[in-house]
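INPUT
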Amino acid sequence: MSQHRNSHVILKQRADGLPAPELFELVEGDAPVPGDGEVLINNVYVTADPGMKGWISKARNYASVETGTTMHSFSVGVVVESNHPDVQEGEVVAANTGWAEYVVADPNLPTFRKVDPADAPLSTALGILGINGFTAYFGLLAVGQPKAGDTVLVSTAAGAVGSAVGQIAKIKGCRTIGIAGGAEKAALCTDVFGFDDVIDYKAVDDLDAAIRQACPDGIDVYYDNVGGATLDIVLGQVNLHGRVVICGTASTDSWIPQPTGLRPERNLLVNRIRMEGFLTFDYAHRYGEALADLSEWVRDGKIQYREDIVDGLENAGAALAGLYEGRNMGRQLIRVRPDPFL
Ligand SMILES: NC(=O)c1ccc[n+]([C@@H]2O[C@H](COP(=O)([O-])OP(=O)(O)OC[C@H]3O[C@@H](n4cnc5c(N)ncnc54)[C@H](OP(=O)(O)O)[C@@H]3O)[C@@H](O)[C@H]2O)c1
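OUTPUT
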């Protein structure tokens, strides 16, 4: 039996539409016991991610959480017990675990990595120097393949992934245009994240015209985090041999029933556009490469980031729900316990 009591958040019910806090319950129990080759981690931060909508929905997805089990998430914490020869008690590690104080993880998985708390604040291991940075890096560079001088349009531009995409595109010599919701986020995009221009989609009557005005030479790369009607509009403005990175679908509340929209094939065919779905995990074997570049850019002040941290696992469900209302200002994290390195 474990010596640790464990608060963790379970999924009570799968979602029909957007995740609501009521779908989750904070419960107490014994901490899990690590098996052979596994480690026990005492989490410090866990995440709320827009993609969780898909993980807990009734519609088919690339990942799924069973009801009655701990909600999955990304996490960073301190190893308190190790049955793995390469991981020592006291080491800080990031892993794909869940909304819990104590979690068991397998260090052999490619998503498990050690974090040096002397390098950067622990929280960044879940944001700009973690899943969000990696998503921006590989989605843009491997799938979007921007060239210097390209116009790169990014949706959810003030968010964790979008802000990093814009800044990496800028480093690569592109003209960057953001789409964000609200005046405060729009100002962040230009003033902090260095976008050349920004469209506050909540303030414009005609998004098509606003994008045309901001992108007079058309769009070479669209980094799409929202899908839906915005994607329909953008597809009509993508240049010959343009690339569309399908990274997220934040604007679609539910895939049951399947939403309908414009037919994209004519735009794709006429302009030979490559539209490609992308999952960061497919690049897990290359995370080290992204981490090296992102760390340097953050150190050199070429990449700025924002985090939105709430305290307590009991607030994780509400933090998640807030993402779909755009309430977060940056990477949404949940602090499970005081950060021992601050
Ligand atoms: N493919 C992958 O492997 C992968 C990995 C990580 C993340 N992602 C995707 O990347 C995107 C950004 O993730 P993030 O963690 O950086 O989150 P984020 O952008 O920091 O937060 C989510 C943002 O989505 C926007 N949003 C919410 N509801 C919306 C709606 N109905 N229409 C349009 N925008 C809406 C809001 O921004 P506004 O206030 O500006 O509208 C909100 O702040 C998400 O789509 C996520 O699923 C994909």
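end of record. The chain has a mean pLDDT of 97.
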